[in-house]
Amino acid sequence: MAAIAVMTALTGCGGGDSDGAAGERATTTARVAEKAAKDEVTVDAVQGDVRSAVRAAGIGRLSFPDMSELGNPCRVVGVLRTEDAPKREAVDSVLAVLKARGWGRMERIPAEDGGEGWHLVKNGWEVVLSAGEVPEGAGIVFDASGKACGVPMPSRPATSDIAPPERPVLP
What we know:
By secondary structure, the chain is an alpha+beta fold.
């Protein structure tokens, strides 16, 4: 009899509601985690958006320099080289595809060199799109960076090379 009383007390008085509430909390937590994973923008997804936008413009040769060696795995730089400065229609088609793929808050940025620039945002990522002509050539540059990109960020060292090991280093 004492064993039944202890088991009843441990299982929430035998009503079964605690199992239902715990299951509901677990389901809600799983849904939130699934949505976050689905909404996370990866480096591959950003490169895919840029490739689709460039295909729509139908101009130039696109390349992606490897940015991971510079210590930021959540950065994508795409360079579209063209013979001449890209025409406004080509840039507009690139922007339209990026907007259709979820890049929003499009803001035009003034450029000093006579080129054109835009700032766009998508799920924690930002991209600056610059179009025009520079001494190195003509084309469009996509410079994107994000806080989460599906890969681990490099960790910071626990101590500084300058401070002695016993002193904490402020972040």
